[in-house]
Automatic annotation (TrEMBL):
InterPro entries: Tcp10_C_sf, TCP10L/CENPJ. The gene is Cenpj_0. GO terms for biological process: centriole elongation; cilium assembly. This is CENPJ protein. It comes from the Eukaryota. GO terms for cellular component: centriole; centrosome.
Length: 130
């Protein structure tokens, strides 16, 4: 156990390889032997950083954010958002899917099978019901 008084941090190394850092009023970090880190913030948000690059954040209300190359946000109510380099897609509970592309075009597909595509000036280039 090490205590760094100048930054008020306690660093503990356990025999099984687990390392922990405790910073009062800020957060708590666990470093596992295979280089996975778990950070617990004072608001009870937990962020996990894995050695393969995956990052997961678990918020107290149940929202989960996963980041690999793309970012997936899953809200506690089941709503999902997928963020990629090319687009951001939101799936709503009523079955609507909204996609915003990197070129500012937007597409909506409703549970009624209606499809709309809108260009950056706000005009529809497609509005049809299947």
């Amino acid at each position: 156990i090490y205590y760094y008084a100048d930054v008020q941090t306690t660093h503990t190394v356990y025999p099984d390889g687990l390392e922990t850092d405790f910073l009062p009023f800020l957060f708590y970090i666990k470093i596992l032997s295979h280089q996975t880190q778990e950070i617990v913030f004072s608001n009870h948000t937990v962020k996990c950083l894995y050695s393969d690059g995956l990052k997961e954040t678990f918020f107290p209300e149940g929202t989960i954010v996963k980041v690999e190359k793309d970012k997936l946000v899953v809200s506690s109510d089941g709503q999902r958002e997928n963020h990629t380099v090319w687009f951001r897609r939101m799936g709503y509970l009523d079955g609507t899917m909204k996609t915003v592309f990197c070129n500012s075009r937007q597409g909506n597909k409703y549970s009624t099978e209606r499809v709309q595509i809108k260009v950056e000036d706000g005009n529809f280039i497609l509005d049809k019901k299947s």
